[in-house]
Amino acid sequence: MAIDLNRTAHEHAAALRAGEYTARDLAEATLALLRRQEDALNAYITLTDDLAMAQAEAADARLRAGEGGPLTGIPVGVKDLLSTRGIPTTAGSRMLESFVPVLDCTVVERLNQAGAVTVGKTNMDEFAMGSSTEHSAFGPTHNPWGKDGLDRVPGGSSGGSAATVAARGVPLSLGTDTGGSIRQPAALCGILGLKPTYGRVSRFGVVAFASSLEQVGPFGRDAQDVADLLQAIAGVDPMDATTADVPVPDYQEHFQRGFQGLRVGVPAEFFGEGLDPAVRQPVEAAIDAMAAQGATIVRDISLPTAPKALPVYYIIAPSEASANLARYDGVKYGFSVTNGRSAEDEMSQTRGQGFGAEVKRRVMLGTYALSAGYYDAYYLKAQKVRTLIRREFDAALEQCDVIVSPTSPNAAFRLNEKLDDPYAMYLNDLYTIPVNIAGNPGLSIPCGFADGLPVGLQLVGRPFEESTLLGVAHAYEGISDWHRQAPPPVA
User: Fold this and answer.
1) What is the pTM of this model?
2) Is 381 assigned a catalytic role?
3) 348: annotated active-site residue
4) What angle do CA 316, 318, 322 make, to 5 degrees?
């Protein structure tokens, strides 16, 4: 049976309920397409055929019984940072190449409860450290929107999750966002990507990078799909003390709101030096389109400390990484060198061979920042600036309902273009990192093209008001068709 895999998740859900095809049919068609795409995209580290078929059969049984929800039978890709019982979870690293968890992380468990079908573990920058998915031990992922062949990066670190949704391999996927790792690849791949408020989604069972910054979140091709996936995974978790005991609303509650009366803040700090003019044009056009539909554009809000977020992030995140990655000592699990001259030598060789260059760079930065004599000068000062940034977002969002900005200062760049220039690579997260520092929710939506490559518009809201962002996204989809644009078929 020929199945249109260009459909969104909610379109597939309607077809499944109508009996047009079964969840098993959909899973088989999806896996066949993913295998045809893999040589070109390298979006997955592991495809989970057996698990997907078993879950599809269970979904069909639920559907026959008149049960199930919007995700029942829907194929989903899962970033390989999320623990999956009996399925390798590598974090994109040789260090965990042979690691097979004995339990599912909370968000995967909730996906299972919703009846979703996990088709594979997506490629990523090693331990989520990167902005291009070129730092994976399993090779780079390619953006399906490449100009001269598939020559562009998909963004990172959740590049595999973004690329597979953009290429119509799956309608939905999960990523993690520590400094922009959902929103930036969503922008570069022309899809939607949401970083929830810190504490909205459980991190239990997620391989740790920077614990005070990272959040699990959804990728999709329209606001309804993103809302449905967030609905399934959000909420307090007794296994994660950092989750907030805040009621989970209906994430489609603002879908009929429109732009009338909406206050849209435009901070000058996000439109200055470093922004590609070809990216600025579609972002400004999107703001004008909102104004034409009745939105009030507030241009006098200010986030003066936001430009400091980049150096703040590269003190806090590496510091937390140096502590979290200390567990990889070659003794308990993971890659291990066992022929060293001493235990200390074996540990050194294990880390030297098991970690890639970017991970080593960040661990060394973090260890330095936390060392005696430097803690107060760097880490403590960074935490104080973090508080200022959070307060500025709170103040700005008293004057407006959402803040808008470019998601990334540039469109997708070529593979290897910035690989040897870490600072240039870090600048890709210039507009997304402040949102992680503040802990607010952020959503990237497609708003146009720059030289034939997708551009993302970032929406930032008050804590736990993801439904407002999704309502704005849904309204924008009603006056534009950027979210419907698809790259040339990969297979």
Assistant:
1) 0.97
2) no
3) no
4) 120
